[in-house]
Amino acid sequence: xxxxxxxxxxxxxxATTAQGTTVLETHNTNRYRPICTLPICKSCPTTQQxxxxxxxxxxxxxxxxxxxxxxxKTIQSIIQVQGSPAYLSLMLDLSHTTPQxxxxxxxxTRRGKLEYVRTRLQxxxxxxxxxxxxxxxxxxxxxxxxxxxxxxxxxxxxTSRASIxxxxxxxxxxxRLTSEELGDVLDYLKVxxxxxxxxxxxxxSAAYAGFGHGLCAKYTDPDxxxxxxxxxxxxxxxxxxxxxxxLTTTIKGMRSWNTWGVDASVIIAELGYEHHSDDDDGxxxxxxxxxxxxxxxxxxxxxxxxxxxxxTGTRVGGQRFKDAVSAALRDLVAEDTMKTVEDAFRAYxxxxxxxxxxxxxxxxxKRRLEGPVRAPMALPTLIPAFEPVLRGAGVGFPVGxxxxxxxxxxxxxxxxxxxxxxxxxLLATCTSVKKILD
Length: 438
Ligand SMILES: *[C@@H]1O[C@H](CO)[C@@H](O)[C@H](O)[C@H]1NC(C)=O
Ligand SMILES: *[C@@H]1O[C@H](CO)[C@@H](O)[C@H](O)[C@H]1NC(C)=O
Prior knowledge:
CATH superfamily of the largest domain: ATPase, nucleotide binding domain
Helix content: 40-55%
Number of helices: 15
Distance between the termini: 45 Å
CATH class of the largest domain: Alpha Beta
Strand content: 5-15%
Bound molecules: 2-acetamido-2-deoxy-beta-D-glucopyranose
Shape: globular
Largest sheet: 5 strands, mixed
CATH topology of the largest domain: Nucleotidyltransferase, domain 5
Strand order of the largest sheet: 3-2-1-4-5
CATH architecture of the largest domain: 2-Layer Sandwich
Radius of gyration: 26 Å
């Protein structure tokens, strides 16, 4: 090898390293090449990534469901998997918990602290060995595996076996499985959480999206999408999920599907349809009276005026249930909202009430895979982080202390601005990639 060739080889290696990319995967990415010379393009999406379908899974009290949202905007319901005894008992246990009770800020006793450390270490060890992080992960993974296999069967064509790489999972609003809990399940199955931090998706929002509400039209442009979603009227949504195993009631204020927070949510296992006691002409009146009273009390307790109703679950289509809902809400919702109850039932068949949550999750997954998200989060988080420093410097600190504080603060601000510019560039690049693709 001549010296020149060697030099050239070294130079080109250096250039490639400086670019920070291993010269983008060459197959079918030629169109991106001209704008993907920056290191940030390490994560430049390929056509294949941008056009891949979004996969949504919904975990309910009784069953799990899966749906696929294709690039051509078609959404397909895939499968409903009945929960195993272990799944049913896990969900029942979880129904009495919230993220705060599962992950408390304070553990009062020393024993509790030790136990906490032990379970954390056990979790890490299990994950390192490729095992489910804990018992809950194992049970949820068993459910997700069945859903995932069906989705993969659907996507497989002829001899080539498709395996999914991303998914979004929704869980009931009162349980709110955290990114960590879902991450443990998905890590075990080697699937990426397309939702990921800092977002989470819960049933009411997923169902809202599944029914086509609160979705901006042009989701690949974050500015246009934000403006669109922020201009929508604020709705106070009552979500009722009724299955054999439980009645779940949730109230949530929403402008778009991704509005954060929930006003109230509760799962009542005793009001699952299987707990009705039959008399001669079907389920007893007493059972539906209890359902009526619960829905009424729950809605009254939040003191919100409901403007929109969402129904999901295998049992919402029954006439007795509809009558109970109407009786419960007669004077608690706007007149035209009550009309939409009937419209809601007329417009959809029962399978939609079962699959709508998974369909919404699939739509969200597709949007997350295709549209640039999260980058604009950098700025708002900077300001509160820097606030104590500003306040500290102003409130008569000893000069000796104020100087390093201000210096460190400036360094921090400088770094943060650089990080923010980096994110903006990333956003701009990815947006232009998308435009070229369009
Ligand atoms: C969209 O794509 C899916 C899967 O390729 C196909 O089954 C479906 O019919 C398509 N829908 C439309 C409207 O083209
Ligand atoms: C609803 O509230 C009323 C009055 O506070 C109470 O008597 C009743 O037991 C409650 N019913 C349910 C199902 O919570």
